[in-house]
Amino acid sequence: MGRVLLLVFCAAQIVATPAIDFNRTHATHPLWTRHARFHLVWQIFSQCIFAAFAGWLAWHSGPGIGVRFYFAVAIVAIPLVGFLLATVTRSLYGGALYDPNGILPLRLTVLGKHIEVDGNLVVVVAGLMMLAGIVLVYCWQDLVVAAGILLPVPTLSALG
């Protein structure tokens, strides 16, 4: 199940990354310089290729599947961790989480205090949490197999 979940995660990265970034707020933003657009499109293609490779590593059966699974997780986590590093170091290079001409952060009032929540940051943190959950599912499967425990597999009739 962990391998299936990782494959779904990889597929989501392959579909969501271009869907989010190939639009007027990012890659085709009229105020962005052509060179900035080039770097973004390079990042999009790289991230999609990494996710496809990670999906192949996780899904391809054979010897070393455990090592390949964890390597695949590391590969798809790298862009997410890179985003977090860019977030915490943005004061060093004058960066921002959003462009005033693009998608603005969600503005919330919590206990009378106004806060802004960046959608990208929420998605990246959620993605890393999902990856951690996928690893836990995979580890749990390994422990069950190593212990020789046979768990009942629910059938469709039992679910419904």
Mean pLDDT: 89
Query: With helices defined by DSSP (H or I, 4 residues minimum), what is the helix count?
Result: 6
Overall form? globular
Lateral strand order in the biggest sheet? 1-2
Strand content: 5-15%
What class would the helix/strand composition place it in? mainly alpha
Order of helices and strands: HHHHEEHH
What does the main sheet amount to? 2 strands, antiparallel
> How much is the radius of gyration in Å?
19 Å
Q: What is the helix content?
A: 55-70%
Number of strands: 2
Count of individual domains: 1
The span between the termini is 20 Å
Uncertain spans: none
Describe the structure.
There is one protein chain. The protein is mainly alpha-helical. The chain has one domain. It has 6 helices and 2 strands. Strands 1-2 form a two-stranded antiparallel sheet. Strand 1 and strand 2 form a beta hairpin. It is globular. The protein starts with a helix and ends with a helix.
Distinctive features:
160 residues, mainly alpha, 6 helices, 6% strand
Please provide a brief summary of the model.
The chain has 160 residues and is mainly alpha-helical. Helices cover 67% and strands 6% of the residues.
